[in-house]
Every structure is written in C-alpha cells, then in structure tokens.
Design a protein that fits this description.
7 helices, single chain, four-stranded mixed beta sheet, about 140 residues
Length: about 140
C-alpha cells in the first residue's frame, strides 16, 4: 500500500503566524515552494493554524493594497487547516484534497509534527493517469 509518506515531498518547513508576508515570500523563493504551513507560536506543540500560498500573498495582500512587510501569515489563514497522517493511504489523500478542493496537503507524523507536503506534482509522479484525471477534475471543477 502506498502511503502519504511515500509520495510527499519531505522536509517541509513551518512559518510562525507572526511572520510577515515579505519574509514568507522570500522563504518560498529560497525553498522553491508555492506554499508554507503556518504554525501557531502560542501553542507549545506548534500546531498548524493554516497554510499560506504565493497566490494568497498576491491576491490577499499585494493586490488589496496592503504592505507585505506589515501583514502576517496568520492574517491570511482562514478556515480549518487540512492535513493527512503520514500513514494515510493514497485514497485518503485524494479524498481529503478533492473534498476540500486543495492543491497542497501537509503531512504529519504520529506526534502531530509536520513531516512533508503533498503537492499536485507529487501526485503526478505517483498516480495512474485515471487517478490523476479524476483528481484534476474534482479539484478544478
């Protein structure tokens, strides 16, 4: 059985909710990623409170006329964060992404620590053509 841990991109990094968006964007550039999970620095377990994408920064901050040096990652986090366990099977991963129409999914271990992220590119490398077509249809519909 293929699990989330098998298909994820390992080594994902958190940014604290207090981090400014200009720094988040710089970190995205350095890491060559389009999204970063956001942790709640007031939580001693550093639990995820959301995820910020490059698109969020452009649409939710820059295009809205806000200064990314003054807006934080936490300011953009909305809704309930979605994630999957590292031992989840591929069907569970796809269900979570499809049901929530998300393109990136953080992966956590048994201690609730971030261990990776699954992106569309990761899915493309590990799914059959039929599975990938169904995913694209569900998420982009």
């Amino acid at each position: 059985m293929t699990t989330a841990a098998d298909i994820m991109h390992p080594g994902a990094q958190w940014v604290p909710a207090t981090e400014t968006l200009d720094r988040v964007a710089q970190l995205m550039r350095e890491l060559d990623v389009g999204a970063l999970p956001v942790s709640d620095p007031t939580d001693p377990n550093e639990r995820m409170c959301g995820i910020v994408t490059d698109r969020d920064i452009v649409i939710g901050c820059v295009a809205a006329g806000h200064d990314p040096a003054r807006v934080t990652a936490g300011d953009l986090c909305k809704g309930t964060p979605r994630w999957v366990s590292a031992d989840a099977d591929v069907d569970q991963v796809l269900r979570e992404m499809e049901n929530n129409q998300i393109r990136r999914l953080p992966v956590i271990d048994e201690n609730k620590r971030l261990v990776g992220i699954i992106s569309e590119a990761d899915l493309a490398h590990h799914l059959s053509d039929d599975q990938l077509a169904q995913f694209v249809e569900s998420v982009y519909a």
